[in-house]
Specification:
- By secondary structure, the chain is α+β, with helices and mostly antiparallel strands.
- The chain has three domains: 278 residues, BirA Bifunctional Protein, domain 2 (2-Layer Sandwich); 62 residues, 2-Layer Sandwich (Herpes Virus-1); 92 residues, Anticodon-binding domain (Rossmann fold, 3-Layer(aba) Sandwich), CATH 3.40.50.
- 32% of the residues lie in helices and 29% in strands.
- Helix 2 packs antiparallel against helix 9 and helix 3 crosses helix 10.
- The two termini are 37 Å apart.
C-alpha cells in the first residue's frame, strides 16, 4: 500500500529517537554518510531485543520451531536459483536536467494516492508518469524513460575476488540449509524454521527513516509442509479467535474457523499461523482496530506466491506493511534443487515429498518505528507540554526508574540499594535535576513506572511508585516492590 507523505509527527519521532538514543543516522558526523543506514542506541537496542524476545516466545517456542543463524554473504549460485539476479529490481527514472534519480512507482503513488502493481512493465510506468504529469521532485523538470535497478549488494570474496552477494532476505539461508537440518535434527513435517538477522537491499531512494532501509533486520519463519496435509495440529487453540481481515475496503472481524470454512483463508495451517501472528502484535500493545490482513491480488503478489497476505498496521503515515505472509508452494526448494543438483525431497511417514513453504517475513525495524509512532503522545500538564511514549509495559525499553528526591541525607544510598535489588528488571537510576525533570525524561522514553526515595522513606521504609500514563503515585513498602512490579508488568 502507498505510504502517505511525511508529516510533522515523523519529524518529531526522528528528533526524539536521536535525542534519546533510540536510533540515528549511521556515520552522521561525516558528510559522505549514505542514507538508509541507521545505528541503534541503548534504548533502541533494548526495544529491539524485547520485540525479538516476544517473537521467540509467542511464535518460535510456542510452535516448537527450530532456529538458525545463517551467513549474511552467500554465493552467486543461491541468487541465480532464487531469481534475484534476474528480477530483483525496482523501476527508476532520472531527471533529464538535474539527473536526480527517483523510484518510478513511488512517484506515481505519491501523486495519485493509489497503490501501483509490482508487475507493470517499464512502458506502463512511462505512460502513468505522462498521464499524471509527474515531474522531477527536486527541480520540476521532465523525467527520462523508466529503467531497472537491481538491488543486490555485490561483494568480492578472497584474493581471487570471487563474486558473492549480501543476502537481500534471510529466508534463502533457511532454504539451502533445509536438507542438512532435516537430516541432522530429526525433524518431521510440518516444521517451522526461524531466523533473526540482517538483510541488505541497495534501495534507489530510502526514505521515512526505519520504514525503508538499505540494511535492516528481518524475523523470518518458514513453515515446511506436505501440501496434501494442511490441517493444523493445534487449530483448536485459535478456533474462535477473531482475525482482522480487509475486504472491499472494509475491515471485518471473523473467527479463524469461519475464515477457513468460508474459504477466505485457504486452509487450517495458514489460518493458524496468521492467528499466532496477530496475537503477537496484540501482545506488543497494538490496538486490534489498527491492524489488518490484506489479501494480495494477482497484480500485487510475488510471482512465486500461490496465496499472499500482508499484515498491516495503521500509523500516522497510513497503513504500513509489517509482515509478508506468502504460500510459496514448492518454488524455492525446486529452484535450489535444480541449480545445485541436490535432492530436496524428504520422507513424510511413508511418502517422499518435496515440501511446500508458508512464510511469515517480518520487518523488525518497521515494527520499532510503528511502536514509536503509535506510542507517541503530547499533552498539557500544568501549562507545560509533556511528551510521552505510551509503550505497553511489556515492551518498554526501560521498565522502571529509581530516583533519590535529593542528592543528600542518605537518600542516594537507599535508591542505589533498591536499584541493585531490582536489577532483574530493565531498570534505570537517575539523580540529575529536579524530580519533575527526571519524570519528564522517563516519560519521553516510555518508562512505565518510577520509584522515588524521599525523606519519608527513612522513617517508614516506603517509596512512591508513580505510574506513567495517569501520573498517579502510591506509597509502597520497599520489601513489596518486586512483587508489585511483577504484577503491574504482567510477569
Amino acid at each position: 500500500m502507498p505510504i502517505k507523505k511525511e508529516t510533522n509527527k515523523i519529524d518529531e519521532i526522528i528528533a526524539l529517537a536521536g535525542r534519546r538514543g533510540f536510533f540515528f543516522q549511521s556515520c552522521e558526523i561525516y558528510p559522505d554518510s549514505s542514507s538508509g543506514f541507521f545505528d541503534y542506541g541503548p534504548l533502541g537496542v533494548s526495544l529491539k531485543n524485547r520485540i525479538i524476545k516476544l517473537w521467540r516466545k509467542m511464535l518460535v517456542k510456542r510452535d516448537k520451531m527450530i532456529e538458525i543463524d545463517g551467513s549474511q554473504i552467500m554465493s552467486k549460485s543461491v541468487f541465480e536459483a532464487s531469481g534475484h539476479l534476474k528480477s530483483f529490481s525496482d523501476p527508476f527514472v532520472k531527471c533529464e536536467k538535474c539527473k536526480f534519480i527517483s523510484r518510478a512507482d513511488k512517484l506515481i503513488e505519491e501523486k495519485t494516492g493509489k497503490a501501483i502493481p509490482e508487475k507493470l512493465n517499464d512502458e506502463e510506468y512511462d505512460e502513468l508518469i505522462k498521464k499524471n504529469n509527474i515531474l522531477c521532485p527536486k527541480c520540476k523538470s521532465r523525467l527520462g524513460k523508466t529503467k531497472r535497478w537491481n538491488m543486490m549488494f555485490k561483494v568480492g570474496v578472497g584474493a581471487e575476488n570471487n563474486e558473492a552477494f549480501l543476502r537481500p532476505e534471510t529466508c534463502q539461508s533457511i532454504y539451502v540449509d533445509f536438507p542438512r537440518l532435516f537430516a541432522t535434527t530429526r525433524i518431521k513435517l510440518p516444521i517451522g524454521i526461524a531466523q533473526i538477522g540482517k538483510s541488505f537491499r541497495n534501495e534507489i531512494s530510502p526514505r521515512q527513516s526505519l520504514l525503508r532501509m538499505r540494511e535492516f533486520t528481518q524475523g523470518e519463519i518458514e513453515i515446511f509442509f506436505n501440501p496434501k496435509k494442511t490441517a493444523a495440529e493445534n487449530f483448536s487453540e485459535v478456533n474462535d479467535y477473531e482475525l482482522q481481515i480487509s475486504a472491499n475496503k472494509k475491515i471485518q472481524s471473523i473467527s479463524v474457523k469461519n475464515a477457513v470454512s468460508k474459504k477466505i483463508i485457504s486452509n487450517e495451517m495458514i489460518a493458524y499461523y496468521l492467528a499466532l501472528l496477530q496475537q503477537f502484535f496484540e501482545a506488543l500493545g497494538i490496538d486490534k482496530k489498527k491492524m489488518r490482513f490484506r489479501p494480495l491480488g494477482d497484480d500485487e503478489k510475488a510471482f512465486y506466491a500461490k496465496e499472499a497476505w500482508d499484515f498491516e498496521v495503521e500509523t500516522s503515515l497510513g497503513w504500513v506493511e509489517l509482515v509478508a505472509c506468502n504460500n510459496r508452494s514448492d518454488y524455492d526448494l525446486n529452484a535450489h534443487a535444480k541449480q545445485s543438483k541436490h535432492n530436496f525431497e524428504v520422507m513424510d511417514e511413508n511418502e517422499k515429498v518435496l515440501p511446500h513453504i508458508f512464510e511469515l517475513s517480518m520487518g523488525i525495524d518497521r515494527i520499532i518505528y510503528t511502536l514509536l509512532d503509535l506510542s507517541f503522545d503530547k499533552e498539557k500538564v500544568d501549562n507545560e507540554e509533556r511528551i510521552v511514549l505510551k509503550f505497553k509495559p511489556l515492551t518498554a525499553p526501560i521498565q522502571v526508574a529509581v530516583f533519590p528526591l535529593v542528592n543528600k541525607d542518605g537518600l542516594p544510598e537507599i535508591a542505589k540499594k533498591i536499584y541493585s535489588d531490582l536489577i532483574d528488571f530493565d531498570i534505570s537510576y537517575d539523580s540529575s535535576g529536579s524530580i519533575g525533570k527526571m519524570y519528564r525524561r522517563q516519560d519521553e522514553i516510555g518508562t512505565p513506572f518510577c520509584i522515588t526515595v524521599d525523606h519519608q522513606t527513612k522513617e517508614d521504609k516506603t517509596v512512591t511508585l508513580r505510574e506513567r500514563d495517569s501520573m498517579k503515585q502510591v506509597r509502597i513498602k520497599i520489601d513489596r516492590l518486586k512483587e508489585e512490579l511483577d504484577k503491574r508488568l504482567g510477569k
